[in-house]
């Protein structure tokens, strides 16, 4: 199998199997446009650590349309929050739908069943609503509450 070189945003060259790199629609299109020039492909929006993690991702097209995440993907996504969000951004930029789905499912599972206060704590989000605004929002969305 042939390999190609990707250059991360921090200037690190990473050699990767062409078939692995082509999981990214963006890279696949770039390779089609460039032909076999042998030049490194710049990936300006993804740093070395995230790019290596994205390359490591298992390509399994048998993922279901649920929030269930298989064991391999769960282990793969056991990273700190910053890396998780960087992986999601990279998957979106590189157009790797399966990885984007797993990342988003991971975040969805992190907030499932939590109150707004618990979600804010999980993601270190500052509450910018006044108590009056919070009460109004709760009243307007009462229908969505689990009872």
TrEMBL record:
Gene3D superfamilies: Potassium Channel Kv1.1, Chain A. Residues 97-144 form the SKP1 component dimerisation domain. It comes from the Eukaryota. The keyword Nucleotide-binding does not apply. One of its GO terms (biological process) is ubiquitin-dependent protein catabolic process. InterPro entries: SKP1 (IPR016897), SKP1-like (IPR001232), SKP1-like_dim_sf (IPR036296), SKP1/BTB/POZ_sf (IPR011333), Skp1_comp_dimer (IPR016072), Skp1_comp_POZ (IPR016073). Pathway: Protein modification; protein ubiquitination. Keywords: Ubl conjugation pathway. Residues 3-56 form the SKP1 component POZ domain. CDD domains: BTB_POZ_SKP1 (cd18322). The keyword Zinc does not apply. Essential component of the SCF (SKP1-CUL1-F-box protein) E3 ubiquitin ligase complexes, which mediate the ubiquitination and subsequent proteasomal degradation of target proteins. Controls sulfur metabolite repression, probably by mediating the inactivation or degradation of the metR transcription factor. Component of the SCF (SKP1-CUL1-F-box protein) E3 ubiquitin ligase complexes. Belongs to the SKP1 family. This is E3 ubiquitin ligase complex SCF subunit. It comes from Penicillium desertorum.
